[in-house]
Design brief:
OB fold (Dihydrolipoamide Acetyltransferase, E2P), 9-stranded parallel β-sheet, 19 helices, about 20% strand
Length: about 600
């Protein structure tokens, strides 16, 4: 009987898939300790979105979090983090010196293994980062990223077993040092047949001592079937999680997989009674966090528009923040075309976010009217080669709107020549802000940008979504109205509105409803006036203009932030600013007046 080993993804992927990666370290350490006592020795504890999110939302330092995890887990536990190839732990690709610094800093702060992937399966993006991980004395788990699309949208070669094995062969031909191989399906859409064929072929290709890992999510309801196909094909490890961050948009639950393997030729390497106890402790630890209802569900529509579990809830939560959750089904529908015209890059960070951002722009600003920066740079080649050629018309639009020519140049060379990137640029930003230029601060600045500088200067807003306790309804002042989905309601209590979702079994989640946008002030009566309105829902990231400023047509008035992207808002006509109608950090609705001008 073959023992199947597993990595517990609760403390990284689970947090991202349920809570937008926004969880305080002090809250989950007791659960990590309980899992260690249960015998689990292999954990995913950082990287990916669990780096930036700590600085942006949790008021914490990710390096401190890693240190504390190592202290609790002990010296022998295998603590793994997730890296996005040339992007390391951000949405922007980096220069070589920052990629090298990433490996050194994570080694310094207790990490033992880094899973390294590239959403485009461009081996160039794995080669340098992999060599730096190995040189730092870490275990390098090189990855091939998986995804499937339905009939009629199939690209042919891309995302077939042949494509995946060819990607693995390129890794071998490039002589990238690695210790294990992961086949990573973040969207949970790859069919069991493709998984079986791929891993069976990989097992024949790889040396016997190289372990094969399989990663997937239950988002489309196929996680257990996918893992069985991987195990039967020759996989040695699977990624599993504990309740409450298992199933739904997350990885398969440890107990579920243990049960599935009973009576087969395989056995999960676990003491199940101790895991049950650890899960109970973990559920108590997470009790105060708001769990979006979609995190607990599977969607049969995800294979038609692949959205990773780790991105799905993060995006729906951001849509809640921007009071536009009703647009989610339209955005998911739009993703189908966006993926196909984008060249079939795997729907995993950062490409999954590029897809969602472009789909969101298509829904809110008109189909292909606005090419978002990340998506545009991807189709132009600034993140590497896409598995298939992107749509020629989309490439043309991206080139015109972003002012960039298509390229086949290595992204590392592009970034090394960019004066805004690298250790030198980050050091100068720190010095200008009067901050210490430690290696940690340099890396934080390079990967988190201005928000990283804000954190280091002590500006640490809290963005964690805790449960809100609804007050008892007062008959004279309260009312309840049914919302758009079964089991969901908008409850108004003493003038305050709450989204309430009652799940089967009676579990209830409550979150405050975003305030309605204030009415815009009237235009000046002194002359012909015009308004600049928001083309999309979002939050005001920066106000560029002041009353009295005179602008030419095409000049920027402010920057909005939504779906992890910053959108520049410009005036289409020349004029003098007579009223700035919104403030920094204010939520705005699509069509809301931002600035009022008078013509000059």
């Amino acid at each position: 009987m073959k023992k199947i080993k597993f990595m517990d993804t609760s403390f990284r992927d689970g947090f991202q898939s349920c809570f937008g990666a926004r969880v305080k370290t002090e809250d989950f350490l007791p659960a990590l300790e309980a899992a260690c006592k249960a015998g689990t020795r292999y954990f995913e504890i950082g990287g990916g979105a669990r780096f930036q999110s700590l600085y942006f939302y949790c008021q914490e330092d990710a390096f401190d979090m890693m240190d504390k995890c190592r202290e609790v887990a002990g010296p022998d536990a295998d603590l793994q983090t997730l890296s996005r190839g040339a992007n390391v732990v951000g949405l922007v690709s980096q220069s070589r010196d920052i990629i090298d610094l990433h490996a050194k800093m994570f080694k310094k702060h207790g990490v033992s293994t880094i899973r390294n992937f590239d959403a485009l399966n461009d081996v160039r993006n794995l080669a340098y980062s992999g060599s730096r991980i190995h040189a730092a004395g870490l275990k390098h788990q090189v990855s091939v990223t998986l995804m499937s699309l339905p009939p009629g949208l199939d690209s042919g070669y891309a995302h077939s077993p042949e494509f995946y094995i060819d990607s693995l062969k390129k890794v071998l031909e490039a002589e990238i040092p690695f210790d294990s191989v992961c086949f990573k399906d973040a969207s949970g859409t790859t069919t069991p047949k493709i998984i079986f064929d791929t891993i069976k072929a990989a097992r024949k290709l790889l040396p016997a001592e190289v372990t094969i890992h399989m990663h997937t999510h239950e988002t489309a309801g196929m996680g257990v079937a996918a893992y069985m196909a991987a195990i039967e094909g020759g996989a040695d490890f699977v990624d599993l999680s504990m309740q409450p961050v298992s199933g739904g948009t997350c990885s398969t639950d440890i107990i579920t997989m243990w049960h599935r393997l009973r009576g087969t030729d395989y056995q999960l390497d676990v003491d199940i009674d101790k895991i049950i106890e650890a899960e109970s402790i973990f559920k108590n630890c997470m009790e105060k966090y708001f769990m979006p209802p979609e995190a607990c569900e599977v969607s049969p529509m995800i294979p038609f528009s692949p959205m990773p579990g780790g991105a799905l809830t993060a995006n729906t939560q951001m849509m809640r923040d921007n009071n536009c959750l009703e647009l989610y089904p339209k955005v998911i529908d739009e993703m189908r075309e966006v993926v196909a015209k984008g060249g079939f890059g795997t729907s995993v960070t950062p490409v999954s976010q590029f897809y969602f951002q472009q789909a969101f722009a298509n829904v809110t600003q008109g189909k292909w009217k606005k090419i978002t920066e990340g998506y545009g740079k991807m189709v132009l080649g600034y993140f590497g080669h896409t598995p298939a050629e992107p749509d020629a018309e989309v490439v043309k639009l991206a080139s015109e709107q972003l002012g960039l020519e298509p390229t086949r140049e290595d992204v590392h060379d592009i970034n090394d020549n960019d004066p805004k990137l690298g250790v030198k640029a980050a050091t100068e930003k720190l010095q200008a802000a009067g901050l210490e230029t430690t290696d940690e601060n340099i890396f934080i600045t390079a990967t988190c940008g201005d928000k990283g500088i804000d954190f280091l200067k002590g500006n640490k807003p809290l963005g964690i979504r805790y449960k809100e306790e609804a007050k008892p309804a007062a008959p004279a002042t309260s009312k309840s109205t049914e919302a758009s989905e079964p089991g969901s309601y908008v409850v108004t209590v003493e003038g305050k509105s709450f989204n309430v979702h009652v799940a089967p079994g009676g579990a209830t989640s409550v979150a405050p409803v975003a305030a309605a946008p204030a009415a815009a002030p009237a235009a000046s009566s002194g002359g012909a006036g015009f308004e600049v309105k928001s083309p999309m829902p979002g939050k005001v990231f920066k106000v560029v203009v002041s009353e009295g400023d005179v602008l030419e047509a095409g000049e920027e008035v402010m920057i909005l932030e939504a779906m992890k992207m910053e959108t520049s808002i410009k005036t289409e006509k020349a004029g003098r600013v007579i009223e700035v109608c919104v403030n920094k950090d204010q939520q705005v609705a699509s069509g809301e007046v931002l600035v009022i001008f008078e013509e000059v």
